[in-house]
Specification:
By secondary structure, the protein is mainly alpha-helical. It contains 15 helices and 5 strands. It has one domain (12-396): Glycosyltransferase (Alpha/alpha barrel).
């Protein structure tokens, strides 16, 4: 079976493993609970191979997934743009911009805070490449200050086709591309993409300052677009509403983007923007979420602001969320925090990461690290089976994944 990590989370497993293993000061081998040791570097290696298995477009000569090839090279032709690249969603073929941007934000957060651990594990360049594959695509999608392509492919039609992306019809079936403009706006999508580019600009600041500056320029432009022309993106990209509608609204994405721009620039203007959003969306941003993921970024805003500003009020908000997650949120009989029937391990990995980040800034560190360790251990095999394809004991053998389908 192709040895790739399959749809555990939107990047938080990668980041939470290093958040925990850096705390343990053993990034190459950290102890799990219950069943002994896990080679976290091997898990990160497999996780990053998953992202490479998800790549769309023209693949590089040094690709590490031999059974993947070039695909969807006509993306964007229906609108006269080059929209090749980016990542397929889950085990499917659509490129949904909203969750893709959330993925890049979390991957970048992990790299920004734990670069040394990636270096020690020998995965630093692979991690940078994973982020850049996404951010390069977002730069293509941002075709003007007030135009952004947020989806390529039709959800229902593409989901009805089973097969490898390389086998997609070469003629007569160019996929549609959907954009947001000032006509409707798309604040949630634009805000998340701004956050992704701002976070990535920090990740590349030392290794590629020119690229970092380009990312930051686009992040600022997208933030302005998001704030001035407010609407949920599914008002214009209606197809996405059946798959990735932002149920939490767009206040969290505006604050998320402003916070990442504050961290990237240290410009007081963006702290004022954060305060503006807290005044306007205070009920949400000062409240307690029940998840952290591609839709609701509230907990991430609270924890990141605690990290960036050191302000006790943000630490208190982060503690309210993580205390609920650790002490009150539903758990399965074997200890996995159960937050939603869809993507259960994704949710567990996401909240493990955000609460490990809270621990990093001194918020209830012992309890949150113990919780994070338990969730990671559950994913990697503490209960008798691994949920990471190709890694550990009794891993899944038949993932729902079009790109790895062998029609023979």
């Amino acid at each position: 079976m192709n040895q790739v990590l399959f749809t555990l989370c939107v990047g938080a497993l990668v980041s939470s493993i290093y958040a925990y293993s850096t705390y343990k000061a053993q990034p190459e081998l950290a102890r799990g609970v219950g069943n002994g040791n896990y080679n976290y570097s091997a898990v990160i290696h497999a996780s990053l191979l998953f992202y490479e298995a998800q790549r769309s477009g023209k693949l590089p000569a040094d690709k590490r997934i031999p059974w993947r090839g070039d695909s969807m090279l006509d993306d964007g032709k229906t609108v006269g743009k080059d929209l090749t690249g980016g990542y397929f969603d889950a085990g499917d073929l659509v490129k949904f911009g909203f969750p893709m941007a959330a993925t890049m934000t979390i991957l970048s957060w992990g790299l920004v805070d734990y670069e040394d651990a990636y270096q020690k594990a020998g995965e630093l360049e692979n991690m940078r490449n994973a982020i850049k594959w996404g951010t390069d695509y977002f730069l293509k999608c941002h075709t003007s200050d007030n135009e952004f392509y947020g989806q390529v492919g039709n959800g229902n039609k593409d989901h009805a086709v089973w097969g490898r992306p390389e086998d997609w019809p070469k003629t007569g079936k160019v996929r549609p591309a959907y954009k947001v403009t000032t006509a409707q706006g798309g604040t949630d999508l634009l805000g998340e993409t701004s956050a992704a580019l701002a976070a990535a600009s920090i990740a590349f600041a030392k290794s590629d300052p020119t690229y970092s500056a380009t990312l930051l320029t686009h992040a600022k432009s997208l933030y302005t677009f998001a704030d001035k022309h407010r609407s949920t993106y599914t008002a214009e990209i209606t197809d996405a509403a059946n798959f990735y509608k932002s149920w939490s609204g767009f206040g969290d994405e505006l604050a998320w983007a402003a916070t990442w721009l504050l961290r990237a620039t240290n410009d007081s203007h963006y702290k004022a923007e954060v305060d503006k959003h807290f005044n306007e969306f205070g009920k949400q941003l000062m409240g307690k979420s029940t998840q952290f993921g591609w839709d609701d970024k509230t907990a991430g805003v609270q924890v990141l602001l605690a990290e960036v500003t050191g302000d006790q009020k943000y630490k208190t908000l982060a503690q309210t969320f993580c205390d609920w997650i650790v002490n009150t949120a539903p758990k399965t009989p074997k200890g996995m925090v159960y937050l939603d029937q869809w993507g259960t391990l994704r949710h567990a990995g996401n909240v493990a990461f955000v609460c490990l980040q809270a621990a990093k800034v001194g918020v209830n560190p012992d309890a949150y690290r113990k919780f994070g360790e338990k969730q990671i251990g559950y994913i990697l095999g503490d209960t008798g089976r691994s949920f990471v394809v190709g890694v550990g004991v009794n891993p899944p053998a038949h993932p729902h994944h079009r790109a790895s389908y062998d029609k023979k």
